Amino acid sequence: MASTEGKPITCKAMVARGPKQPLVAETITVGPPKAGEVRVKVITNALCHTDIYTLDGHDPEGLFPCILGHEAGCIVESVGEGVTSVKPGDHVIPCCECNVHAYFMTAIASSFLLQILTSSCVCPRHCLFKSSLLLGFILAFCFQTPLSGQGFMPDGTSRFTDQDGKPIFHFMGCSTMSEYTVLAEISCAKISKELALEKACLFGCGVSTGLGAVWNTCKVEVDSSVAVFGLGAVGLAVIQGAKMAGASRIIAVDINPEKFATAIELGATDCVDSSKLDKPVQQHIVEMTTWGVDYTFDCTGITSVMRAALECSHRGWGVSCVIGVAASGHEISTRPFQLVTGRTWKGTAFGGFKSRRDVPKLVQRCIDGKLPVDHFITHKFDGVENTNAAIDALHGGKCLRAVVKY
Ligand SMILES: NC(=O)c1ccc[n+]([C@@H]2O[C@H](COP(=O)([O-])OP(=O)(O)OC[C@H]3O[C@@H](n4cnc5c(N)ncnc54)[C@H](O)[C@@H]3O)[C@@H](O)[C@H]2O)c1
Ligand SMILES: [Zn+2]
């Protein structure tokens, strides 16, 4: 690895040339890391729905050509000037947040630029807020936001060039659908080498988000009741997290009954196929529970489901958490009386975890056998060029996470 230090690397990547088009396998050049940056070899990449959301053209700010991918396991190849927290050979998970809060964070990030640049993302005070700002800063430059320098590294340039010498945009500060990518140092969560990167990559987004929504955002207590709408990897992680938190009743809701077996294995006590009901699902759940459930989670990104989740949370104290990312332009609604009578509506990005501090801990819990994640890997592929096959699998309805080994 040392021989490539300071030099451009030529490698394979899947380039998103435009929305609603299959990714194109291309040979690209990845420039060396600049000050404060880290170049990594991507070993495994697990697809997340946010990649597909952008690829399918649902993100109005989507910039093309770009290299998607943000749920990955990587090994540091070389580091730029001033980088001290990771070194070549370290295993890292790129830290990102799904784009759910990008606009908000971008808007406030610029006014706190100095604070962000001088704060570490493990600051103890207002930690989540500051961490969000930090991520907002990264997203502002590396993702697709209204600020100048969009889709680039923090210095406003790209590390990727195609065979015609033209730049390719970065995505979410990660761009892991490439054999090599460049990350900001503050986007690298250094993890133990004991956990295979095939599993560790899952902690980069969806699984951590589901667990964190339960543990951090809602702080689900022992003996509480929970309803989870949408049983993809995120919803199943919510179930797993709720079971670990001691919830006594966990209602799993989906329109695809094939999802119920895994939900039950992970701790669901009731399963509801909402497509088969002759009444609104919220009414059904209120009747099942008399007054509703303590905590509900939307893991679908569908605004009518978000409404149903709120309206079957318990009168007086129910909390409903939006995790799903809705299609551009969609809005949520309910009768205000639902809130007047004591329900709380909230949302979460990356489950409220601070990636650099918390992802290594989640990985360690997995190594210790206290947080199994094998059940999320339903499909495996070899070679970066098989990323399109992984996308097809994800669209197929039976896939939780498709991990591509590069
Ligand atoms: N907030 C965050 O930080 C964050 C992080 C990761 C993912 N996400 C979002 O979370 C959502 C879930 O991600 P995923 O990877 O688990 O997706 P997924 O597509 O694998 O799972 C969605 C599930 O919802 C089910 N579903 C569809 N319509 C439904 C309905 N009307 N009622 C009940 N269930 C229904 C589907 O059958 C599927 O099982 C996505 O919107 C994703 O973008 C958010
Ligand atoms: Zn994601």
UniProtKB/TrEMBL annotation:
Name of the protein described by the UniProt record: Alcohol dehydrogenase class-3
Any Gene Ontology biological process: formaldehyde catabolic process
Domain Alcohol dehydrogenase-like N-terminal: 35-99
Organism: Skeletonema marinoi
Cofactor section: Zn(2+)
Keywords in alphabetical order: Metal-binding, NAD, Oxidoreductase, Zinc
Enzyme class: oxidoreductase
Source organism phylogeny: Eukaryota, Sar, Stramenopiles, Ochrophyta, Bacillariophyta
Alcohol dehydrogenase-like C-terminal domain boundaries: 233-365
A GO MF label: S-(hydroxymethyl)glutathione dehydrogenase [NAD(P)+] activity
A single cellular component GO annotation: cytosol
Pfam families: ADH_N (PF08240), ADH_zinc_N (PF00107)
